[in-house]
Amino acid sequence: MATSTRPDTANTDRYGIERVAEDDPGFVDKLRAKWGWFDHVMRMQERYAGEGGNHFSAGVTYFSVLSIFPILMMVFGVLGFVLAGNQELLGTISDQLTESAGDDMGATLNGILDTAIEQRKSVLSIGFLTALWSGLTWMSNLRMAITALWKRPMKADNFVTGKLRDLVRLLGLLAMIFVTFAITAVGSSGLTAVILDKIGLGGVPGIGVVSFLVALALGLLANWVLFFWMLTALPRGEVPLGSTAKGAIIGAIGLELVKQLGSVFFSNALSNPAGAAFGPIIGVMVVLYLVWRITMYSSAWAATTEAALEMQPVDAPPPAIINIRGDAGVRRGLLRR
Fold it and tell me: Read out DSSP for 21-51?
């Protein structure tokens, strides 16, 4: 009896390969097939790890820290111009520095303040130029990181217009970051209690809890606006707004947790001399790294939704080009001349 060469359709997979038995999916694959949200989480993690999310987070953190010092120089320069024309305010600040920091440290801080006033022009100009350079570099690398997670081309079509757009986005990003952290700082400090006392609501039972919840809600809303703007405006190319809105929710919650933990850390770190010396810079680096890591995860989530995957261009290989030499068969003896 001749052997049958017909394929067994019952054991043929979708690739046309005949198998003895179907492959048993693993535990994680079963969960992915069962729960769509879990499959989305796994797609997010695969996109984050596959496109170098950790490396991008660390790189953006480096450029963020590099931009802080020029911005501080600009702040000192502006402060020098303000205090140079207001001797009464200068005297008040000098007395408060001496009273809070002590005689020796107060004298050192007052010396720095006097230097900032005397050299305010050079400090402001150098700070502005270096902040412009480092800030644009920071924004360019941040856009590159978020764009990479969307698997889009990472270079701008025009260098000049790309830098101008990066400048506008940089100013908007700095403004929104300031607003989000200011809301959290006000809500977690004693300023809220002072304001409530002045308007006569300080003695209302439960007013502290209510004010905390209101500040928390406002902080989450500000965080969501920040992340929605970053996930929508920073990637190169068109992105689905519904996906970025959902990804911004993850970023808003994660950023609020980082801010709350950061406020606790800084309040404890500044209470002792060793923490005051090394705590701020270490805390700033850790907070920035966590913020940008949350940003990368939010981008990976938004970039792996069904709507985003439908917009993603197919990563097809380039067409093959086959060149046939006319004398190839003749030289091998396969054809006659």
Answer: SPPPP-HHHHHHHH-HHHHHHHHHHHHHHHT
pTM score of the predicted model:
0.73
pLDDT at 105: 64
Contact 120, 77 (CB under 8 A): yes
**Phi, psi at 18, each rounded to 5°:** -85, 125
CA distance 174 to 189: 22
**263-267: long-range pairs with CB below 8 Å, 24+:** 263/184, 263/185, 263/188
Q: What is the pLDDT of residues 192-240, one digit of tens each?
A: 666 666 676 666 676 767 777 777 888 888 889 889 999 998 888 888 9
Say if CB 234 and CB 143 are below 8 A apart: yes
What residues does 12 pair with on adjacent strands?
A: 18
For 92, how many CA atoms within 13 A lie in the half-sphere containing its CB? Answer: 5
Contact 90, 116 (CB under 8 A): no
Q: Which residues contact 228 (CB under 8 A, 6 or more apart)?
A: 244, 245, 248
State how far the Cα of 45 lies from the Cα of 83, in Å rounded to an integer: 51
Mean predicted confidence (pLDDT) in 116-123: 78
Judged by DSSP in three states, 18 sits in strand
> What SS3 string covers 307-332?
HHHHHCCCCCCCCCCCCCCCCHHHHC
Sorting pLDDT into bands at 50, 70 and 90, what band is 42?
very high
Cβ(149)–Cβ(53) below 8 Å:
yes
Q: How far is CA 311 from CA 122, 194, 233, 234, 302, in A?
A: 50, 51, 17, 17, 12
Alpha-carbon distance 175 to 216, whole Å? 19
Q: Provide φ and ψ at 12, rounded to 5°.
A: -100, 125
> CB under 8 Å to 281, separation ≥6 — which residues?
none
Q: How many residues are recorded in the chain? A: 337
**Cβ(222)–Cβ(176) below 8 Å:** yes
Q: Tokens at residue 330, please?
A: 């003749």
